[in-house]
Design a protein that fits this description.
With about 450 residues, this protein is α+β, with helices and mostly antiparallel strands. The protein has two domains: about 290 residues, 3-Layer(bba) Sandwich (FAD/NAD(P)-binding domain), CATH 3.50.50.60; about 160 residues, Elongation Factor Tu (Ef-tu), domain 3, CATH 2.40.30. The strands form four sheets. It has a six-stranded mixed β-sheet, with helices on one face. A six-stranded antiparallel β-sheet has the order 10-11-12-13-9-14. A three-stranded antiparallel β-sheet has the order 3-5-4. Helix 1 links the parallel strand 1 and strand 2. Helix 3 crosses helix 4. It is globular.
């Protein structure tokens, strides 16, 4: 029998990683600090405890990126998706589960597996050097000792504070009859061209109406255990800045200087800028627009901005007391820490959002660690799949300078090939366009799985 792989954390990512390892015949030591050390969010000592919601979101594999991820994980033999399906409860088109039954099922299957050894207790600091293959799947509430040790290795801030996140918008939903590409004073940044930002102009009346709605919109309430965590000074929510005076934003992230609107001779009173957020150029980040507005209000208020009236959001803004690493900078393409390759990371600590995404990265980490242990080649899934797009984003496709937690969405995928339109034929968009992404993804995933089976 081969030497075991150590998996730290028995949440969704750790449980899935452990399952993928033992499914490949590799023994696992699964470490879970609960109940010896609790967290502010968990209430049981069960594996894969769902702490915020019982929903895995949409299960529509043909028209929704998370539903597609569900299906890909099912085809990869996911433990998490199998138990989600076994314990699902009515939720329309979403996959929602009975929390207790789901956690109990995952716990029993792993705890009773002959290749799994469960060890309860905290791993304080770096794992022992004798552990030559470790998957760290400790989630957003990583124990302080381990988080501090990882920070020491990477040199990156550990980010255990309120990090205010700016929304990200699909480029194809921006109105370029109003917006335009230009850098301030046409200055090219590193790797830029002088047209590195999308600019959305506002008149004085539009700006004042926007500020009124921004200040009046309902905001997120903090949980009791979060209230003493400070904001990151360089990343204040936009509404906090607006409270300092009506012109604070106009001479901050929305300053209208150094820009020439090709659509109008009228100088804008304020300008909202969006910066490219992924290597594909399909997603753009609203610069300086970190926010704690509630989600529905964000959509309503931000669509007041000229050029963004039909904006589709890949990610809305928010506030998180979070621990995650700057994965594009510190991880290699197989999820190993560049500074210490015996450590592989999985789950929310890698900078993905959502239960399903966390489990998906656990699935990939487990498969990669198993291949490494068995002396097999590690072949990442194609970037045209949901698994591959998510992996690519956190290991280099996302911009390290602005990296923040992200849900899976079609903006992370390379655009699909669309047949040339014939005269009178409508443009392929909406559900039909999403179907193209999904059909390609599932076909490419099956090829990948077949290739792995033959290896």
């Amino acid at each position: 029998m081969s030497t075991p792989v150590h998996v730290i954390g028995a949440g969704l990512a750790g449980s899935e990683a452990a399952w993928q390892l033992v499914a490949a015949g590799v023994p696992v030591v699964l470490h879970e600090m609960r109940p010896m050390r609790g967290t502010e969010a968990h209430h049981t000592d069960g594996f894969a405890e769902l702490v915020c919601s019982n929903s895995f979101r949409s299960d529509d594999a043909m028209h929704n990126a998370v539903g597609l991820l569900h299906e890909e994980m099912r085809r990869c033999g996911s433990l998490i998706l199998r138990h989600a399906d076994a314990h699902k409860v009515p939720a329309g088109g979403a996959l929602a589960v009975d929390r207790d039954g789901f956690s109990a099922g995952v716990t029993a299957e792993l705890a009773n597996h002959p290749l799994v050894t469960v060890e309860r207790g905290e791993i304080a600091g770096l794992p022992p050097e004798a552990w030559d293959s470790v998957i760290v799947a400790t989630g957003p509430l990583t124990s302080p000792a381990l988080a501090e040790a990882v920070r020491g290795l990477t040199g990156e801030a550990e980010l255990a504070f309120f990090d205010a996140i700016a929304p990200i918008i699909h480029r194809e939903s921006i109105d370029f009859g109003t917006a335009w590409f230009q850098s301030r004073y046409d200055k090219p940044g590193p790797g830029g061209t002088g047209k590195d930002y999308i600019n959305c102009p506002m008149s004085k009346e539009e700006y004042e109406a926007f500020i009124r709605e921004l200040l009046a919109a309902p905001k997120t309430e903090f949980k009791d255990w979060e209230k003493d965590t400070p904001y990151f000074d360089g990343c204040l929510p936009i509404e906090v800045m607006a409270e300092r005076g009506p012109d604070t934003l106009r001479w901050g992230p929305m300053k209208p200087v150094g820009l020439t609107n090709p659509h109008s001779d009228r100088r804008p009173w304020a300008v909202v800028q969006l910066r490219q957020d992924n290597a594909l150029g399909t997603l753009f980040n609203m610069v300086g627009f970190q926010t704690k507005m509630k989600y529905a209000e964000q959509v309503r208020v931000f669509r007041m901005i000229p050029g963004l009236q039909d904006a589709e959001f890949a990610r809305l803004g928010g506030l998180h007391r979070n621990t995650f690493i700057n994965s594009p900078r510190v991880l290699d393409p197989t999820l190993r820490l560049k500074a210490m390759p015996r450590l592989r990371f999985a789950g929310q600590v890698t900078g993905v959002e959502g239960y399903v995404e966390s489990a998906a990265i656990g699935l990939l980490a487990g498969r990669m660690a198993a291949a490494e242990r068995l002396g097999q080649a590690i072949v990442p899934p194609p970037v045209t799949t949901a698994l591959g797009a998510l992996l690519s984003h956190i290991t280099g496709g996302g911009a390290a300078e602005t990296f923040q937690p992200m849900n899976v969405n079609f903006g992370l995928f390379p655009p699909p090939e669309i047949p040339e339109r014939q005269p009178g034929q409508k443009k392929v968009k909406g559900r039909d366009r999403k179907s193209l992404y999904s059909e390609r993804a599932l076909a490419d995933l099956d090829l990948w799985l077949g290739r792995r089976a033959a290896a």
